[in-house]
Amino acid sequence: MPKEIITLQVGQCGNQIGIEFWKQLCAEHGIDQEGHVIGNQNYHHDRKDVFFYQADDEHYIPRAVLFDLEPRVVHGIMTSEYQGLYNPENVFLSKDGGGAGNNWARGYATADRVQDELFDIIDREADGSDSLEGFVLCHSISGGTGSGMGSYLLESLNEKYPKRLIQTYSVFPHLTTETSDVVVQPYNSILTLKRLTLNADSVVVLDNAALNRILVEKLKVTTPSIQETNTLVSNVMAASTATLRYPGPNNNDLLGLMASLIAVPRCHSLITSYTPLTLQKHASSIQKTTVLDVMRRLFQTQNVMMSAPMKDGKYMSALNVIMGDVDPTEIHKSLQRIRERKLVEFIKWNPASIQVALSKHSPYVPQQHKVSGLLLANHTSIAGVSSR
């Protein structure tokens, strides 16, 4: 039986990347904007129930809750073409609609004040799950709601659901004076980092500076938009959950993924790399996608979605999620070549092995490439992102 995961979208950034994530999941599972299956009704090799549940009329509803202190983004979602997808009872908006004003303390205090309303939604969603495995939190660590309310939710979830896993997709901001338009971003980030360290089981770092660099350098986008950045993030999120939804022989639940990557509980911040990179309007320059080619590119520094320099750091663990019709012997040969060329350097006190999880491509989405891949890795250079 598949184990369910509840997604929490918190703040402007969390809801923006959240809707892109659900668009991607709907496409990959043959679900339309109203939650109805439009693909092959007899295809049963995917696990829709991990992230969706069925209503009485059998249309699919995301296991998602939407929290924000100002209404603009959530209202945009609930009046979009996907308005019939979400459960409207799973939406919380502050009554005054004033937002958190980029103030961590205001976001945290407001969440504390309305905690009963927030957890009425979360508890109802959890009670509707047969075998809840955990929660996924989408948020920014720099905005008032994403950081403040996100921090409060992390603490409270840890207390109320101590046996459930918590994974976050945390957007890290530009923290330089040249690019930051909010003076208090560093304070919001520091306060949130403490909660991510103490209360999350896994933190997938989405570095805004690196995402913009990849869009400009790899996809030749002159001026990256928020929409394009969020689409890139949704590709990473969908790929990182691919083995949960299209299960292979291993790493087919959240616990298995975390066990593969986290050797020391406190060292649970993960970096990502994805290839081939594509957007709707911008094709990737990669022409050939063999398993070796994809795996080699995943470890190239310029493809890693982290702006801190990696040359002085080492890998603690690495997991390649390879999607497509792949012969396992190709995986073995590719790993051997990577070891021979010493493309990856591991720390000495942990087993130096690159783990691989296989997943099928979705039959509902036309594929531009035969093979695609995602790297999830625990790397010592992640400290550089926090030290900026």
TrEMBL record:
Transmembrane segments: none annotated. Keywords: Cytoplasm, Cytoskeleton, GTP-binding, Microtubule, Nucleotide-binding. Its main location: cytoplasm. PROSITE patterns: TUBULIN. It is found in: Cytoplasm, Cytoskeleton, Microtubule organizing center. The keyword Manganese does not apply. Belongs to the tubulin family. Tubulin is the major constituent of microtubules. The gamma chain is found at microtubule organizing centers (MTOC) such as the spindle poles or the centrosome, suggesting that it is involved in the minus-end nucleation of microtubule assembly. Tubulin is the major constituent of microtubules, protein filaments consisting of alpha- and beta-tubulin heterodimers. Gamma-tubulin is a key component of the gamma-tubulin ring complex (gTuRC) which mediates microtubule nucleation. The gTuRC regulates the minus-end nucleation of alpha-beta tubulin heterodimers that grow into microtubule protafilaments, a critical step in centrosome duplication and spindle formation. This is Tubulin gamma chain. It comes from Babesia bovis. The gene is BBOV_IV007250.
